[in-house]
Amino acid sequence: MSSSASSASSASSASSASSASPLEPDRAAMTDMGRAVLDRIIERTEQLALRPASHPLPPEATSELVESFLAPPPARGGDLKALLERLDDAADCALESAGPGSLAYIPGSGLFSSALAEFYNRATNRYGGVAMAAPVLAALEESVIRWIAEDVCGLPAGSGGLLTSGGSMAAFSATVAARHDRLGEDLATGTVYTTAFAHHSVAKAARLAGIRAAHVRLVPHTPDLRMDAAAAAEAIRADRAAGLRPFLLVATAGTTDTGTVDPLPELADLARREDLWFHIDAAYGGFFRLTARGRERLAGFEHADSITLDPHKTLFMPFGTGALVVRDIEVLHAAHGGTGNYLQDVNDGGSVPDSAHLGPELTHEIRGLRAWLPLHLHGTDAFRESLDEKLDLAEHAHAVLSAIPELEVPAHPDLSTVIFRIRPADGTRAAADRADEASRRLLERINAHRRIVLSSTVVEGRHTLRVCIVSHRTHRDRIDEALEIIATETAGVASGE
Fold first, then answer.
1. Mutual orientation of helices 59-69 and 80-92 as an angle, nearest 10°?
2. pLDDT value for 15
3. What is the average per-residue pLDDT within 213-237?
4. pLDDT by residue (tens digit) across 40-75?
5. Dihedrals φ, ψ of 128, to 5°?
6. Does the structure show a pLDDT above 90 at 8?
7. Do residues 267 and 157 touch, judged by C-beta distance below 8 A?
8. 257-297, pLDDT tens digit by residue?
9. pLDDT, mean of residues 417-428
């Protein structure tokens, strides 16, 4: 027994005797409450494969449930069992993002071990903004960041970063760091380069960082949906000649729409020649570098100035687990650092940086525990094997969908997203419009089965469906079921049923 556990045990009776507040339950009450929640979570997890992939309630019932949860809290407390039943109702009225049929977006399927880590984290409630407040837990989080920066991304010693709530905050901090490093205080002519397939958080981050919307350039893409490096170079030269200050080039390693990887080595060379900050948005694709195929397809990370990755995507962590890593941690600190008189007693964290000085949040929760525990409990091989499985499943889905004559599959998957749509009867715009409408009907028919959920996007002006294979709970059986549903409903749409 640890010293803390021993002390807690010996003090439990005194603590319970002195506490009469319902906010501080005694040991027996905590045990009962914890067991009630844990039993429900285990039952829900065991039933994930059987649960519908989309919520079952009609709009009217959903509206009623929403209104019931908008009510204010009561003056006197209620019964935990009844409240948990209400929470089950709320959780059921949702896309089942934790289940194997979640193929619509790029979900965070959620590891049970992460949930346990997060419970421990919330119960101990340590502050993570400055290392001195919880030096060992800060080191734990730093170990996760260094593993991502050095082992996953191949950045050199001196790199670092922070864990964020997700890719949007990571993109914002990366843009602020690039702005500070390349523009200083003169933002008026700063110009950013990306593509139409970049995540919308890239343009949003630029706007929040004070960059004019007119100075966010959407570089044309090649026929295989990747950023055209030659077009990017021409745009940079033209803008510089017009008196603008190009400062940031954003490539994507796994676009949200199609899963495509931009030509990272070529774009890294361009950024170096033109003295631009080179950022890679790898929120979706980054952790595929744990696999041999992923490392080959995602070559070029080692040349980046900053990289966004989302453990809540391809490390299967709970939502709210993002990461930003940078080549030079001092640049991140210079852009985000700050202090106040009331912090004069805070000591330097030594080899562990203060997260509060690397991003916009002073109140920084210790996000590292929800990643550290699964990584150490399961080992990195377990994650690599699961990601390899997703690549295999995408190849399988691509092959099957390509063989359906009524469908066209515009791109071979770089990672684990496969896109498809109804094939037009001929090359006319009218035929394409009819095919797009048929693709919309196809999506509705597929999702009506509620065994899987797909989503759509627009690729080259066409309505296109997406199969995003990311969940660690999605295996060959569910993908084969999905492909059978797609084939059946495609035939139905084609025959006019």
1. 140
2. 47
3. 97
4. 999 999 999 999 998 777 888 999 999 999 999 999
5. -115, 10
6. no
7. no
8. 999 999 999 999 999 999 999 999 999 999 999 999 999 99
9. 96
CB 271, CB 249: distance < 8 Å:
yes
Residue 372 neighbours by CB under 8 Å, 6+ apart: 117, 140, 141, 143, 144
In angstroms, the CA 467 to CA 409 distance is: 11
pLDDT at residue number 460: 92
Burial class of residue 64 (count of CB atoms within 10 Å of its CB; 0-12, 13-18, 19+):
exposed
Distance in angstroms (rounded) separating the CA atoms of residues 277 and 332: 13
The two three-digit tokens of residue 96, written as one number: 């089942």
Q: Which domains does the chain have, with CATH numbers?
A: 120-337+347-378 (3.40.640.10), 381-495 (3.90.1150.170)
Write the pLDDT tens digit of every residue in 355-383. Answer: 999 999 988 899 999 999 999 999 999 99
Instruction: Report the C-alpha gap between 174 and 324 in whole angstroms.
Output: 7
